[in-house]
Predict the structure.
Amino acid sequence: MHLFFNASAASAGSGLTYVRNIAPALARRSDLQATFLLQPDLRSEMGRWPNIAFEEAADGGSAGRRFLWEQREVPRLVRERKADVLVSAGNFAIRKSPVPQILLSGNSLYTSRDFRRDLRERGEYALWLDNGIKSFFAARSVRWADVTVAPSEAFAGELRRWTRSHSVVAIHHGFDPKVFFSDQSQLPESVRSGLAASEGSLRILFVSHYNYFRNFETLFRGLKKIREAMPERNPKLLLTTRMVSGENPGAFHAERAAALVQELGLTEHIVQLGTVPYLELQKLYRACDVYVTPSYAETFAHPLVEAMACGVPIVASEIEAHREVAGDAAVYFPCFSGEVLATRVQEVAGSAALAQTLSSNGLQRSAEFSWEKHVEKLVRLARTFLPT
């Protein structure tokens, strides 16, 4: 069987994580071939495998231009490569695929009412309109595809309700501990200096670049409460981003969040590390005491699995995707309540027994997520479209 992966939209976040893990997992299989359509910079990262081929997508341009390019060029490439099944990995399907098509849908912003409300409240009307247009085509894409795969049952249910389509299934994303824990070198000097600045403090970690749906403002308000309640622990928040718009992917403006940090008097208590390379994240997780995620929209949340694999107790917003992935390895709070977030962090930081229970549960639960399992289920699904 020959699978063609249209991953030309993979440029940040979970899209990059997916391609970086799925390609090696497919390369370990001798029963199939795969072709990946990638952006040139991502193509340069990929290794060489006898059963994996690569095509380079048109570089640059807007999302709209890329969408039109894909609608024209992907069917041609699929035919040229004589692929059996097309896997569209960027939330949008090909309208007239020459072969059966599996759509991988993993962007909860197209279905999130909270995100639309957030954009309106921020006066981000251009982003609101852009999201609305993309949502329209994302919904149509579910109908254009033969089947849609979501990374969690929570998001699969959301897609079914949103599109009224029953051809949506859930296949969990995976985790590869051998890759994640492979780098034993020292952290970069910039990260080590950030950790040194928080030495002896209660270290609270959040792994994300800046964007609106990750709900940084609630986290900052929660940190203020945590510091008031636990001054003896000198809590500090470590971020893998900086509150500077130009240093983050997407069109999200970080100035309001940066102003809130100053307004709350937290400038000295938030360590903005900037981007940390994926293979070095495990050292950062293990250096921290609590992992916190306040996101109000997620489809899977890979950092939860990474934190669990590192044995870090988790405090998470109570959205369905977080509960599905983290289960009993986390304690939960209402998405927009900085007060309850602070209470949960205090409970974990103040109870060695609770922290140990969450850590142990997380180590066990992280082992349930495997890219090999993901690939096996995806391949099995693709085979259902082949002639018997």
Summary: The longest helix spans residues 125-144. Residues 2-174+370-383 form a domain with the Rossmann fold fold (CATH 3.40.50.2000). The first strand starts at residue 2 and ends at 6.
